[in-house]
Amino acid sequence: MSIITLTTDFGTKDHFVGAVKGTIYSELPDAKIVDISHQISPFNIAETAYILKNAYKSFPEGSIHIIGVDSELNEENKHIALKLDNHYFICPNNGVISLLASEIKPEKIVEITIHNLVTTSFPVLDVFVKVACHIARGGTLEVIGKVIPEFKKMTELQPTVTADNNAIFGNIIYIDNYGNSISNITKKLFQEVSKGRAFEITTNKYTFKKIYHKYSDIIDFSLPVNQRQKDGSKLALFNSANYLEIAIYKSNLDTVGGATSLLGLHYRDVIAVKFF
Amino acid sequence: MSIITLTTDFGTKDHFVGAVKGTIYSELPDAKIVDISHQISPFNIAETAYILKNAYKSFPEGSIHIIGVDSELNEENKHIALKLDNHYFICPNNGVISLLASEIKPEKIVEITIHNLVTTSFPVLDVFVKVACHIARGGTLEVIGKVIPEFKKMTELQPTVTADNNAIFGNIIYIDNYGNSISNITKKLFQEVSKGRAFEITTNKYTFKKIYHKYSDIIDFSLPVNQRQKDGSKLALFNSANYLEIAIYKSNLDTVGGATSLLGLHYRDVIAVKFF
Amino acid sequence: MSIITLTTDFGTKDHFVGAVKGTIYSELPDAKIVDISHQISPFNIAETAYILKNAYKSFPEGSIHIIGVDSELNEENKHIALKLDNHYFICPNNGVISLLASEIKPEKIVEITIHNLVTTSFPVLDVFVKVACHIARGGTLEVIGKVIPEFKKMTELQPTVTADNNAIFGNIIYIDNYGNSISNITKKLFQEVSKGRAFEITTNKYTFKKIYHKYSDIIDFSLPVNQRQKDGSKLALFNSANYLEIAIYKSNLDTVGGATSLLGLHYRDVIAVKFF
Lengths: 276, 276, 276
What we know:
The structure is a homotrimer.
Chain A: E1 3-8, H1 16-27, E2 32-37, H2 45-56, E3 64-68, E4 79-84, E5 87-92, H3 96-100, E6 108-112, H4 123-136, H5 141-144, E7 145-147, E8 160-161, E9 167-175, E10 181-186, H6 187-194, E11 199-202, E12 207-208, E13 211-212, E14 234-238, E15 243-248, H7 259-262, E16 270-275
Parallel strand pairs in A: 1-2, 1-3, 3-5, 13-14
Antiparallel strand pairs in A: 4-5, 4-6, 6-7, 8-9, 9-10, 9-16, 10-15, 11-12, 11-16, 14-15
């Protein structure tokens, strides 16, 4: 039985998530349902893409991912199902797939056409679940939709490389649970442009000349404890998803603060890397 | 194996939810447990009823619903288990069932009597779980309680219809994850009173003369994008649970705000519908 | 199949929890995963210990508990796996085990040595999951680590008893979902020192001469409703985890407040019990 994952902006207080799970279990008593996130900022497609992109590859091939963000059907927001990277995605055709897997060619995309069978103001419950259960039972995409050649493209917030190849300009695309500010500059892009050159990273107010590979690398453990870098030190690192991130060592948004609050590094803010 | 759902005000940080699940798995290794909500406002029975009413019907018949809100046993707050609408509910006898299923006659109600076997200050863990596992194993309600004729009634926040049938007065009973303000006026009641007449909905400061059936119906897609209604427009609609709701298009409580914050429409506020 | 539980400070918005679950299911399709908490305050080992200590015993023996708090590997923070109280724990060797089970002798402790097989900045995903799946398949600890004689001890925030045995000084160690302030004084310690004597509990501003066993015990149900103690009354009680707790009857941090906000009783604050 395939896994069905849920990534939504429903929150976990309302009845929405429970109702979706109940409907899945009513159709497929042996379903295995996994929550990826229900805390997406309402209607935020970029956040959805960042989170799901970094989670879906950990699931077994054949997993079915329901995306319930900005999913109301209207004439400019159709519903699609697709197979991509050996995973299935069921989502609105609002650009979210282009943000989460721009470099991977989908194997097949269909525009879902079972809506004439249901009238609904809760399409995740009434349509996406039906499609997910159909796929989980081994059904083909063509049965629930018509094949379309491509999904809607959305290209905002891509990093740019200057013509002379001496700089990358990126943006903060995500603030994580620790308040770390994560940019859209990947380790891969950095290395392609860098070619081993020295560099300087600049944010609104601060510069960084070193990129760490884990948070505690800023600590010099050979020093006595009282002479070490303290909690609250800022650093740049490639995070576990391989994005350039500005972090505060042992940050906590509810107490000492994090990079987003202490350094004023918010969603969409610019981060520049210059190479010498 | 029946599904056991959990609806509580425990939050998800403390050990309570984990302990309850561990106890269920210790008794029933193959249990299927589904969280409906743990974010109920502490002791808020009306919220509990709204959430569970809109979730439980999506689950298969025979599902067992544990309600852990205001569940401390005392001489005025007994524990009950009941079969209603082909679902089982285990909860305090504090009126929550009358709010979530006032119109459905329960098949059987028992007052739970296994407390003399346990001394507890955590009845959801020590009593409700035992009862749920008993039911999941096919046990009857009479074994764990004594039959009683009815549950406690609570009738606050019901909408009223004027004697001349020309108006409905309701209240906001729930604020959802998007900040939408949801009233206790159902589509069914509205249609019974309306009989197709023109109407005007009045809240504290605003009036609405149209009720939409989905959020994006306020957008006129035939217009060029820059001449359309913008995100942030207010509207009245029947939501997916069929309640009259005042909403803000693409609202977000953390950024632009929602109906509750922008329109000042809070829990218990009055909403009136007048028919002409 | 053993249960694998997760206790982390990852939050539930980011991709971390989803990625960990996907990885477990990829290795063990029949795994049973239970979230204990992902809302631990970042890097807070004392909170982690309080929550897991009060949850793990409810799970069946043989359950495997992954602790993902402050888990980055460095030369002063190694990773360990241990069997203790017939449960398995996989965690950093940062003192968390000494706080959650100081009185129980572990059956076996190993320092995890499979890191040379993986380079990682997300050890919960890349290391802890591998170890958990190994144990769940019946593997022994020696295969994934080298036996060590003891885990790191951390002893902060222990209650002290005065030399004359006439007082206990404790601290608030946890604030729960209702805003109750929970001390590190257990019922067991209280009874050992008390030997039935009269007592007075003092916090920053208030004194309590009675300890209740459940919240609603402060209500005298023989009185008419309008003459009773009101919601918002303060009380001391032994909570369901058997710790001395200062509470507000029917508290709600978002509305009326709780003990932590109304009485100003915060993490680490002192609470004294004097016996006469």
